[in-house]
User: What shape does this take?
Amino acid sequence: MALQPTKEGFDLGIVTDNGDEMLAFYRDVLGLEFEATLNMEQVGIAQMHRLWANKSLLKLVVPVADVPAGATGGITGATGLRYFTFNVGNFEEVMTACEDAGANIIWRRLEARPGVVVGMVEDPDGNWVEFIDNPA
Assistant: This one.
């Protein structure tokens, strides 16, 4: 058996108790395309902010009830999903926008392997977001 995807991108959900700041970071700082905010209380979601990055959908999920915080510490903080990556053609502009917004910068510009330059920042909840300098 092999996975047979029905769309080119993927959906990623980030659960947060900090919906307004997370929305502002991903929509206003990174410029992801805002689609809508949904209320889905029947499944325990007070708000789901939906934002697009090309054909991938980022869902910022604010639960109805309080939930415990996840592990912190970035890549080496715990097992599981620890970061996600955007390949960008405007690397310096993105990194500067994150700095100007007060995001914690993990790596400003690091050659991860020959010819591959990355930057890593924390979003308002402490999730790590990687940017790869990939000019068109």
Observations:
- The chain is about 15% helix and 45% strand.
- The CA atoms of residues 15 and 61 lie 5 Å apart.
- Helices lie at 19-29, 91-100.
